[in-house]
Amino acid sequence: MNSEDSCKSSIERMLKNSQTKVIAPVITLGLLVENSASGKAIFTDSEIRKAYEAAVRHLKEYLGHDVHIGAKYYDAYGSRMSRYGVLESVGHLKYELLPPYPEHAKSLCGWIPKRIKKHIEDRLGVVPLLHDPARRAALAGDRKGFLKLISDQINKTSANFEIFSFAVIKVHLEKFACKIYRDTRTASHDKGVDLSTNFGVVYQVKKLRIYTESEAERVYGELKLNFDNERLQDGNVILVIDDISKEVKKYLIDIKVQSISKDDVLKMAANFDEPEDRQKVLRIVYDEFRREYSSRIR
């Protein structure tokens, strides 16, 4: 592996480790842009921050959106970059850009934005494009295409499963004058997300599959930790999960826990006859992703 490939390999690790925001590759890009322009190799923490924020603004323009980039900067980020061999501490909140990064600064400055773009597309799919009302209207106008989009996107990640499920269930329940709210955030180590309602029921969305009674008992144990016994005994907790066997579904019903599978969510989506309902699903999806993933840097 040549030295440029080793830099790219480190950036791939950064992307793999990123959660709701891409941080380390954007810091790297900012530093390399500065190094390429001025030859600068020693950076104070405030200079790293400025380089990072400039890179975020550049990427927002390049991507045409700000989803999955632009986290708040903390002074710990400089020292964290040492794990990828990008920076080394040379004093209090002062760091050196390590070789071979300066040697390949120009080519990496061209490669990193393209790689970040592909990473976001792979992880979030069509979501960043849903900021455009015209795009949402076009996607909602084609019923078969809309259903394929929901089916494809809901499978991508735990966050996609949680947010797309929420959006479909929300629009479905609105037809019965019922409201539903997201109380927690996604991607919390697959613990799921809680959805509260104005009619006493709580939904717990978890991207998991339950095929055995032992698995069901484990999930029920988690529900008992998260919700009071009265709510469970009254049958006011509903699981939204990826898949469940018929036997286990009946087992849960017997202990007063209803379940909704991914297939059930897709059937709800298939019942949206009006394009306006389908548009609303896509708008909710974008709004919820943006609430968690959009840039904190203007």
Description of the molecule:
There is one protein chain. Strand 7 (237-244), helix 11 (246-254) and strand 8 form a beta-alpha-beta unit. The two termini are 38 Å apart. The chain has 13 helices and 8 strands. Helix 8 (158-174) crosses helix 12 and helix 8 packs across helix 13. The strands form 2 sheets. The protein has a 5-stranded mixed beta sheet, with helices on both faces. Strands 1-3-2 form a 3-stranded antiparallel beta sheet. It folds into 2 domains: 3-124, Winged helix-like DNA-binding domain superfamily/Winged helix DNA-binding domain (Arc Repressor Mutant, subunit A), CATH 1.10.10.10; 127-293, Trna Endonuclease, Chain: A, domain 1 (3-Layer(aba) Sandwich), CATH 3.40.1350. The mean pLDDT is 92. With 298 residues, the chain is of the alpha/beta class.
Largest sheet at a glance?
5 strands, mixed
| Overall pLDDT metric | 92
The SS-based structural class is: alpha/beta
Number of helices: 13
CATH class of the largest domain: Alpha Beta
Q: Predict the CATH topology of the largest domain.
A: Trna Endonuclease, Chain: A, domain 1
Helical proportion, percent range: 55-70%
The low-pLDDT segments are none
N/C terminus separation? 38 Å
Level-2 CATH architecture of the largest domain? 3-Layer(aba) Sandwich
Residues in β-strands, percent: 5-15%
If you compute it from the alpha carbons, what radius of gyration comes out, rounded to the nearest whole angstrom?
A: 23 Å
* Global outline: elongated
Please give the domain count.
2
Number of strands: 8
